[in-house]
Amino acid sequence: MKKDTSVKPIRVITVDDHEILRGGLKFFLLAFDDIELVGEARNGDEAVHLCEQLQPNVVLMDLMMVGMSGAEATRVIRKKYPEIQVLILTSFLENDLVQQAMQAGAIGYLLKGISIDELADAIRAAAIGRSMLAAEVIQALLQPSKPLSQPVYELSKRQGEVLALLALGLSNEAIAQRMKLSPSTIRHHVSQVLNKLGVTNRTEAATTAVRVGCI
User: Can you name the CATH fold of 10-142?
Assistant: First the structure.
């Protein structure tokens, strides 16, 4: 089919800390003449910078990333560049995460199991200001929010980064390499994180972190 050059394609950037997933999205979006992938970011900070440089129409935003979270990045982007729409694309379906993302100004919330055609339709809808929510997300929004007595875990920025990498299943050695710190320093941070979360192992720490949205 001949490409219609009279209509400008929807400019999209992807934000995800998994390179393989970004590569997959880049490949799949090539199938659509009306959608153009103009940039890729590994985290929220990079996403904000790319929005300033590239002025996309739609941002596909993951939520759980090291450093600035997807919800925080969404809030910053929507405040600075209200003409840019942010579409959440994540694996997480926690009520609080959905609430945070929507309150931050996201126009839609989709799960990574979505088909590429459904994703393309959601991008088109977002570009014209129409919200798109996965059916599971709508169900989550209908559930009562967690009470205000939800415990707050006061982690330092570095502890939060360690927890985020821990939640991704990385070993202490892998985290040390990623953060350019010694394994002994990482072991100390992991111990402090477990103590602050009140858990006894890494699996419980990751589950708690996702449940309360503290990474």
Answer: Rossmann fold (3.40.50)
